[in-house]
Amino acid sequence: MVTRSWKLGPLALCMIAALISIPATSRAQDKPKPTEADYYKIINIPIPNDVVLECGGMEWMPDGKLAVSTRRGDIYMLSNPLAANPKRIRFTKWATGMSEVMGLAYNKKDGYLYAIQRAEITRLKDTDGRGHANVYETFCDKWGISGDYHEYPWMSKFDKDGNLWVLLTLTGSFTSEAPFRGWCLRVRPDGSILPTCSGIRSPGGIGSDDEGHMFYDDNQGPWQGGCNFNYLEPGKFMGHPIGNKWYDLAPNMQPQPRNPESGSRIWIEAQKIPEYNVPVVIQPYEKVGQSASGIVFDTSKGKFGPFSREFFCSDQHHSNLNRLGIEKVNGRYQGWCIKFRSGFSSGNVPSIQAPDGSIFIGGTSRGWGAVGPKEYALERVVWTGKVPFEIQNMHVAPDGFDLDFTLPVDEKIASDPATYKLPTWCYIYREQYGSPEVDQTTATIRQATVTNGGKHVHLVIDGLVPGHIHELHAEPMRSAEGLPLLHSTIWYTLWNIPEKLQQ
């Protein structure tokens, strides 16, 4: 046996010593940046060749099947929807012959599946056990319809009082040519209607939190510079005045609010119009999405990752899913939005959370442009079990903002005010379509203090502006292990600032 010995020169020894001395943070920064797919994977569900699944609504059935409705008026029942192998999922046509079914809700009390189509809510049931609905009954048809192509209806699940909340899109998305176009109605258990909110434009989804508060996504256009996430507080005006001519049909909603002044700002008009419920979160146009749609409130208690009790909102045009959080300050909801997951196959519209915490997304793009290339799709978002490094939450404070992170931060970076940038701006509140970003300012980060084991940062800020969107950038931020933020920009819609703390 020949034994060889190696002698390292001074240069090699220096290189090894330098490598050993590199901090873990620096070495981690050299790793490839993680992607969204590392944490949340998208499972594409194969759709049979003879099924055109332009998804409009989804609902879980008592037997574990997933009901999916289509814009073409069909309802399919999916067996084994949570199968690890999506090829095991089976589609059965359960109902047909309806028009633009954009919402489904199962009623545990009577065993009917309720479907909203353009002119009515229909309730359906399989009473003979043959695997498809044989009973179709009109439950409510108490609103107007002109025949315009754009009269899409949207419907919630049943609330705690047994009501269904219905959103009626404007005619052509610009006018109100039939009664209650641009309104929210509550449909009572007896099928009668209760006018609930006015001022709606072109909604794309509706959902509630775990306390029963109802929210909806409205789309950018006249009187809306971005896509608005709104709280449906009964008796309130949501901001678009064209449908206010139907107040005579809603005696419970008196008095009729005054019309806003075009060219003003939302916060200025809100001081003049007591009935105006300003948007909870304005989702910046193009930056986050262009056509906000389905809403899911995460009640999975950690099955979907570290974002329990937050909202997930789809966007039809961007084919993505965004994350939202809200808080109530001085009696008014406000909050933030941040990107979450992109790369879906079609234009995302309905969404629903599964018992295992995953989220199903239905896609459709016919007549509506979308980044996702397919005409329709059905996909499921599943958490991989890995925790991403993200801004988990953002709260306004008397002197700035508080940030919570999913993982401990690098305290040196996080405590440096230069790590953060905070431009602010708003939209023009006007009758013309959309708006540029205007009234730009830049807030100054005076101090950043890290607490809670590195998972909380308090920012002391000069220059917060009520009525503005605050666009916080934190690109230099790193976790204690050197990971960059998966999404480093978060947008907070600020209406109220809490009172100063008592000394």
Provide the β-strand percentage band. Answer: 35-45%
Could you name the CATH class of the largest domain?
Answer: Mainly Beta
Please give the number of β-strands.
31
Q: How many structural units, i.e. domains?
A: 2
- Tell me the Rg in angstroms: 25 Å
Distance between the termini: 81 Å
User: Fraction of residues in helices?
Assistant: under 10%
Contiguous low-pLDDT stretches (5 residues minimum) are 1-8, 10-28
Set out the fold topology.
Layout: H1 10-21, H2 24-29, E1 40-44, E2 55-60, E3 66-70, E4 75-79, E5 90-95, E6 104-106, E7 113-117, E8 120-125, E9 135-140, E10 153-155, E11 164-168, E12 184-187, E13 193-197, E14 203-208, E15 214-218, E16 227-231, H3 266-272, E17 281-283, E18 292-297, E19 311-315, E20 320-329, E21 332-341, E22 348-353, E23 359-364, E24 376-383, E25 391-397, E26 400-405, H4 411-414, E27 422-427, E28 437-451, E29 456-462, E30 469-473, E31 489-493
